[in-house]
Input
Amino acid sequence: MTDTAVYAAGGVVWRLVEGKLSVLLIHRTAYRDLTLPKGKVDPGETLAETAVREIYEETGIRVSLGVPVGVSRYRMPNKRQKIVHYWSAEATETAIRSSAFVPNREIAALEWMSPKKALKRLSYPVDVEILENFLRFVDDGVLATFPLIVLRHAKALSREEWKGKDAARPLSPRGRKQANAAVGQLRAFGPRKIVSSPAVRCVKTVAPLSSTLGRHIEHTPLISQDAWEEGEHDARRIVGERVRARKAAVLCSHGPVLPDILSEIALATGTLRGSYLGSASALDTGAFSVVHLSATNPGSGIVAIETHEPKF
Output
């Protein structure tokens, strides 16, 4: 990120009512405009965290992020460039009922409307472009999605620093920072299942997330480095279970195993393999790739992949 640009994030918030698609627009009080929910990145935040926070602050609706639907860029009155990243975000009925939104000095009103009407009513061409990007997914039969989040464990002590078994090698001080800082990033995508190699460095990477979500960690040697080195790993079985479950999940594993996990996701969803899989699996410690799949038809292929770097 450059020093001159202002970064922000938001979403195309959507719901289905009796099978009909509606999107949520906000009436801003000061600007007297109609736009998509979004806001500037707070210090220490990632874009994904910003999107979830800003949608909640502006609408009262808690969401998990779906597929990325584009980036808008424009010049502000002070001539600085503003860069806004957007995701699709489903508003569940529970989340809508839980919203405590009331008109305020920033947001005068919220309005659900059909995409066709929203395209005509939005105040800015950059917002129209983002909504059109979202609608291309809809036209392709993709609306509801779920993510498989492939996470490389955080930074561990080097093999030279550690005299015990490799599987017992702990996180370094930097790795512990990465694990704690990853919680907000990972939560933005709504994980409901946590699957990890039993190696200490993997389990400790997802332990803060497990504690925050109140969900246990499922340990499996089938995606461990020891099993991989011995030719006994089975990423296919683990990936198959998670694709069939159609629920957001984190899979925490090791650098050498990640290419197999990504390859098996492609195979399980009928996706053509290519160099993009190599890019998505070539992760630094503490980084993760989010693989978005159709919740209604996961066999239709990978919808999108995005990669997120650790904060430390």
In short: The longest strand covers residues 6-17. The chain has a mean pLDDT of 96. The two ends are 15 Å apart (CA to CA).
